[in-house]
Design brief:
single chain, about 270 residues, alpha/beta, Leucine-rich repeat, LRR (right-handed beta-alpha superhelix), three-stranded antiparallel sheet, 3 helices, 14 strands, about 10% helix
Amino acid sequence: MGIENSVRILPARLDWPDAVSDIDSIRGDVRKLRCITGVRGLERLNKFTQLQSLWCFGIKQEWLSYICGCTSLENLFIDTLKSDNIGCIRGLRSLKVLSIDSCSMIDSLSEMSDLRGLEGLAIINFRNVHEVNPLSRLINLQQLAVAGSMWTRMKIESLQPLSSLRNLIYLHLTNLKAEDESLRPLAELSQLEKLEIANFYPMEEFAWLSGRLKNTKCTWFRPYVELPFDCSKCGKDTIVMLTGKGKRNLCKECDANRLQNHVAEFQDVADNAA
């Protein structure tokens, strides 16, 4: 099975049962549970000793403590966390996957540094978090997402702390921008199979990294991407988006020379990556 079909950290890509509005309405031997916002009965979640996977929404601090009382959880997905304290998650000794989408109250990931049993982690739309140093200790991670929302870019200082995560096979950095504009720390991730990232970085960074991670799939590990648009000059379906921030779209027919130069430059950097 390819990595595209085995991503465990993004709940929308997984199969779930119908969402429930009341915990008391489900069977005691349930293993997978999706709740609606404002679900009733979370304080009784600790009774479900076989529950392995939970996806919940709009979670306040008190509700998070109820969730962390369900010690059988292996996969926890929270969409909109309304708390600045996630320390209780450390009590989930069986937890392998943690995903939190949208939290404006947390400004540091320091409480995550002790979750060393995690194999998968997603931190999405933490708009007040600007560095990921605590994640460098989670060396058992195989899948990681650090990303902004669909509409809001997340900004961090550097990707350097991720260089120690040598077991990563999947890395999702969509709508995330490292202020130092360097992708070079990712060259240490020799087992990486899939990199999902936005075209926010200089062409030279993508080209260099493509020369180092030859077995990694990434949209921007090639000089350009074809777009489904017709050229306003020649009318042909020949528009491409160049790899690298600040690059303009070109027509393969009308801008053939410029495109050829760009491709040559990209390939030269990739070939000489050291």
